[in-house]
Design goal:
The protein has 338 residues and is mainly α. The protein contains twelve helices and three strands; from the N terminus they run ααββαααααβααααα. It has a single domain, classed as Up-down Bundle (Rhopdopsin 7-helix transmembrane proteins). Pfam families: 7TM_GPCR_Srh (PF10318).
């Protein structure tokens, strides 16, 4: 085993203690925020959004589950470019095998993506395809396949986990400086991540291509409905507004993930190791659900009103009071002139 040179490798931000603290702080923030959003979706969704209420709930449920798993149940300490790391969370305290903890995260990521797909599919179906027999059959079959893949595609990799007595020394030899700031156990998921990465990438390409197709078809349906005047102007305006809102709600958290995921890809492809960068990358990645939740609160008007209702009403009252006084003064002036 290579003897590490620990000069300049003692940063607290590289340590597992930092990751554990960061994730626990995030848990303390996320749980009340997620609970509040569950409340506003269930009790503050207006009648005009009743058709999407439980689809929004489903998206939020899986985002919240992924958040809690990341920051509290698993609390992963990843060691890229090796496909290795260790759990610092509740699951490891109760003795759950790390391979099953990884599987939990993978399944929850898949279910979060599918919940977003289902939400957009609901919007397209509501707008365009209530009488299209082909689409009804296609969507049922496609989502059955997506659900099965989300729950099962990772199972074959579970049986390919290498013997830790052989794999851990290889990782420590490749990344000797890890022992400068982390001396705990290491779980090696695989010594060759090529197959796992390619299969996962193919799965994501299919899912996001499907999402892109749904967004495009929904947009085209809105244009068609507008030209044909098939729906009232008010209904179309509400449909457009909500469609744009869920696009923004989806794009914002994924846009924030681009940089850390790009770093992880670069790290694995180039063999670059920097544990501080690893830690911050996964802090950002694990914030996806929280960012998505804040987006739900701020983007959708009914939920924004539930959050800022009193402040908005006070502001409206302050604005309307001078306008009301002006109108009254103008009315009195008109009365005197007449």
């Amino acid at each position: 085993m290579t003897i590490p040179n620990c000069s300049g490798e003692t940063s607290y931000f590289s340590s597992s203690d930092f990751m554990s603290l960061a994730f626990h702080v995030m848990t303390a923030i996320e749980i009340p925020v997620h609970a509040f959003v569950f409340y506003v979706i269930v009790y503050k969704t207006p009648a005009r959004m009743v058709n999407v209420k439980w689809y929004m709930f489903n998206v939020h449920f899986w985002s919240a589950m992924l958040d809690v798993s990341f920051t509290f149940l698993v609390t992963p300490y990843f060691i890229f470019p090796a496909t290795a790391g260790y759990s610092l969370g509740v699951f490891i305290w109760i003795g759950l095998d790390p391979v099953y903890q990884v599987t939990v995260l993978v399944v929850e990521i898949g279910m979060t993506i599918i919940s977003i797909l289902v939400l957009f599919e609901n919007r397209y179906t509501a707008l365009a395809s209530s009488r299209e027999v082909f689409w009804k059959q296609f969507r049922k079959g496609s989502f059955v396949i997506l659900y099965i893949v989300a729950w099962t595609y990772f199972i074959p990799f579970i049986f390919q986990v290498p013997n830790p007595n052989l794999a851990v020394p290889i990782v420590l030899n490749e990344l000797p400086t890890i022992r400068c700031f982390y001396t705990g156990p290491i779980f090696v998921f695989t010594l060759d991540s090529t197959v796992v990465a390619r299969v996962t990438m193919l799965k994501l390409i299919v899912e996001f291509s499907y999402l892109g197709i749904l967004v495009y078809m929904t947009f085209q349906s809105l244009i068609k409905q507008t030209k044909n005047a098939a729906l009232s102007k008010n209904t179309l305006a509400l449909q457009r507004k909500f469609f744009i809102s869920i696009i923004i709600q989806t794009v914002i958290p994924f846009a924030i993930l681009i940089l850390p995921i790009s770093y992880c890809g670069y790290s694995m492809s180039m063999g670059y190791y920097n544990q501080t960068f690893n830690n911050f990358a996964f802090i950002v990645i694990s914030s996806h659900g929280l960012i998505s939740t804040v987006a739900i609160l701020l983007i959708h008007e009914p939920y924004r009103t539930a959050l800022f209702g009193k402040c908005l009403r006070n502001r409206e009252n302050r604005i309307s009071a001078p306008n009301s006084n002006t109108r009254q003064q103008s009315a009195r002036g008109s009365a005197r002139r007449s």
